[in-house]
Amino acid sequence: MTEGVAQAVRSRPAFHFDGGSRVNRLTLLTTRDCHLCGEARAALDLVKERTGEEWSEIDVAGDAALARDYGDRLPVLLLDGREHGYWDVDVPRLLRDLAK
Fold first, then answer.
1. pLDDT at position 18, please?
2. Do residues 59 and 28 make contact, with C-beta atoms less than 8 angstroms apart?
3. Gene3D superfamilies, per this entry (predicted)?
4. Assuming Cys at both sites, which of 30, 76, 82, 99 could form a disulfide with 86, CB separation 3.0 to 4.6 Å?
5. For the chain, percent helix, then strand, then coil, each to nearest 5?
6. Residue span of the structural domain in which 40 resides
């Protein structure tokens, strides 16, 4: 995970369970005027309906390092801080990987 992603994820609210805390397993990197980002959001909402898995969104325009690293292939989906895919969300693959 790049330091920019780590910092952005740390700045998001954590979800608490069993006395601990954690961040969302799914993070969608987006930017303004990104038509594919809307499709990715809809796919992640479907995944949330099926699994209950929350997701967060980070606009890379607010972070120069993220914009440099990911700006040419948005949206980018991170699973547990690692790149899972870009441009579209492969829902069947994501569901399999979340179940692991």
1. 42
2. no
3. Glutaredoxin
4. 76
5. 50, 25, 25
6. 3-99
Residue spans of alpha helices (H) in the chain:
3-11, 35-51, 64-70, 91-99
- Region at 87 (left for phi over 0; alpha for psi -120 to 50; beta for the rest): left
Q: What is the pLDDT of residue 24?
A: 84
Residues of the chain with pLDDT below 50 are: 1, 9-21
The closest alpha carbon to 86, from 74, 71, 69, 72, belongs to 74
Closest CA to 47 of 93, 15, 79, 95: 95
Q: pTM to 2 decimals? A: 0.78
The confidence score (pLDDT) of residue 51 equals 97
List the CATH number of the domain containing 42.
3.40.30.10
Q: How many angstroms separate the CA atoms of 25 and 48, rounded?
A: 12
Q: Are 67 and 27 in contact (CB under 8 A)?
A: no
